[in-house]
Amino acid sequence: MVGMWIILIAYLILMVGIGVYYRRKTANVTDFVLGGRTLGPWFTAFAYGTSYFSAVIFVGYAGRFGWSYGVASTWVGMGNAIIGSLLPWLILGRRSRIMSKHLQAKTMPEFFEKRYNSKTLKTIAALIIFVFLIPYTASVYNGLSRLFEKGFGIPYKYCIIVMAVFTAFYVILGGYKATALSDFIQGVFMLVGISAVVLAVLNKNGGLGGSIDKMAEIPNKEGITGEFASIFGPDPVNLLGVVILTSLGTWGLPQMVGKFYAVKDDKSVKIGTIVSTVFAVVVAGGCYFLGGFGRLFVDNVEGAPATGFDGIVPEMMNAIPELLFGVVIVLVLSASMSTLSSLVLTSSSVLTIDLIKPLKKDMDEKKELLIMRIFIGVFLLISVVLAIFTLENPTTIISTLMSISWGALAGAFLAPYLYGLYSRKITKAAVGACFFCGIGLTVAHMIYFTFGKHELVIGGLAIHSAINAGAITMIFGLILVPLVSLFTKNKPEDQKYYDEVFECYKRDDL
Questions:
Q1: How many degrees, rounded to 5, is the angle at CA 437 between CA 460 and CA 395?
Q2: Which end of the chain has the least Cβ crowding within 10 Å, N or C?
């Protein structure tokens, strides 16, 4: 325990030191939100990866889907690496960097305003982001607090509060530059930590071969053995839904897309593509691969884990040496704090830049920074309250909270953002329709299926699942936007403006 405490305290002191160091290097709003658009490929790639993967993945998703799909859950990690990391960098990275710089857009709502020449779209997008980032933040707290309670015996309420205070401290002081350096350090912890944990856990059951053999002996609901060690698992249809939600969703999440706004140049985008993908293979692949062996460590009680889905990975940690468990705590803390810092910075900047500043035309940068810092604290406070509430409600699980958040945000934003980078023909009506349908479908599903506990399976696909609902919402948006644009037309003045916007790709100075 002494070793675990030393590792934890040293890590927290380091994070505070980074915040203090960058306090003097954050001179204006662009510095605070985007690091002055001067970050190189390694910092940006690690910032992308550490914002992507948190305690939600390590504790919530790895545990739940490892239990449901066995070793085949590793496909989720590979999907995260290819669809969620490689392809966004290739398809969105360069165009996002150029167009956002040309439009001087610092946030996703500001991008929608200036790309589609609509203040209304900016306001709606900002409200969506603030509301639906809260359950995501709560799910991060939820996952980390469970692991802390297991490792240190600290009540989860105190874990949540302390974590919020430390996150607020270094983000409020240092802004994006502080989070970027923190993300890089946290990313190194994650790479080393997940590799060590996977090896330690497999070693408990005779290595990789022995672990897979034991997984093959576990029967499914019908008493058939071998499925939990098979390549596609017992339920490949719903596994595909998980892959789509957790991978394609990053294309429309404001805290992820915003990383491309801050990258320095095209060369950095190319290098960042490789670094980000390798990072995702190790971290995401390792997490889901680890979770795939959860049934070897947790008892099956009437088809469900005795610890609950969110208790599987913490229970697995009992099988590793105590000092390594301390490393795991720092690993998950690193992942969670980096994700939290990205979420709160995104939310506070959206509220200040996109909602409050337009109402106060005479607001100077000093006051804008102050308000942004205040909202970081407000956002964290609301998230803490929700996290404590959901932890005290045993029917609420981490993956559900995250699925609702990702489904709403990516369902609303993915298609308008992607098509907005490539097509001049997308109309405001199409963007508004996607916003409405993305949020409408998510909320309707949440009320009827998630909270109402209704069941519906079509062709093997569990429509009642918040995960599959999120995946369906994203795909629906990709069909809806070009379809609505086909039947609506841009006004001549709007079309002229859009044509001018796309001239940015011909400029050599961006």
A1: 55
A2: N
Given a contact cutoff of 8 angstroms between Cβ atoms, the answer to whether 279 and 503 are in contact is: no
What is the four-CA torsion angle of 3, 4, 5, 7, rounded to 10 degrees? 80
Contacts of 104 (CB under 8 A, 6+ apart): 114
Is the pLDDT score of 27 beyond 70?
Answer: no
Structure confidence at residue 143 (pLDDT): 62
User: Across residues 65-83, what is the average pLDDT?
Assistant: 92
The residue type of 337 is M
CA-wise closest residue to 142 among 343, 443, 402, 468? 402
Q: What is the maximal distance between C-alpha atoms in the chain?
A: 70
Rounded distance between C-alpha atoms, residue 29 and residue 216, angstroms: 55
In the chain, % of residues over pLDDT 90: 24
Spacing of C-alpha 411 from chain mean position: 14
Residue located via tokens 């985008």: 269
Output DSSP code: residue 27: -
What pLDDT is attached to residue 177? 72
Ramachandran angles phi, psi of 75, nearest 5°: -60, -30
Question: What is the rounded CA–CA span in Å between residue 508 and residue 131?
Answer: 38
Judged against a pLDDT cut of 60, whether residue 398 lies above it is answered with: no
Beta strand ranges found along 451-504 (DSSP E):
457-458, 461-462
End-to-end CA distance of the chain: give it in Å, rounded.
52
3-state DSSP call for residue 88? helix
User: How confident is the model at residue 171, as a pLDDT?
Assistant: 73
What are the structure tokens assigned to 112, written together? 């929608």
Q: What is the dihedral of CA 347, 338, 312, 246, to 10 degrees?
A: 60
Which tokens sit at 244?
């789509």
- Which CATH number describes the domain made up of 2-25+40-392+400-506? 1.20.1730.10
Rounded Cα–Cα distance for residues 368 and 221 (Å): 57
Calculate the alpha carbon distances from 292 to 51, 127, 234 in Å. Answer: 23, 37, 12
C-alpha closest to that of 35 among 180, 166, 168: 180
Nearest Cα residue to 55 out of 459, 378, 340, 394: 340
Most confident of 78-82, 135-139, 286-290: 78-82
CA dist list (Å): 331 to 90, 283, 437: 28, 10, 37
Structure confidence at residue 113 as a pLDDT band (50, 70, 90) = very high
450-466 burial code (b ≥16 CB/10 A, e <16): beeeeeeeeeebbbbbb
pLDDT of the residue at 25: 67
Task: Please tell me the distance from the alpha carbon of residue 196 to that of residue 194, in angstroms, as a whole number.
Answer: 5
Per-residue pLDDT at 98: 93
Strands 304-305, 457-458: pairing is unpaired
Average pLDDT of the chain? 81
pLDDT per residue over 136-170, tens digit each?
777 666 666 666 666 667 776 777 777 777 777 76
Domain boundaries, the chain: 2-25+40-392+400-506
Is there a contact between 263 and 93 (Cβ–Cβ < 8 Å)?
A: yes
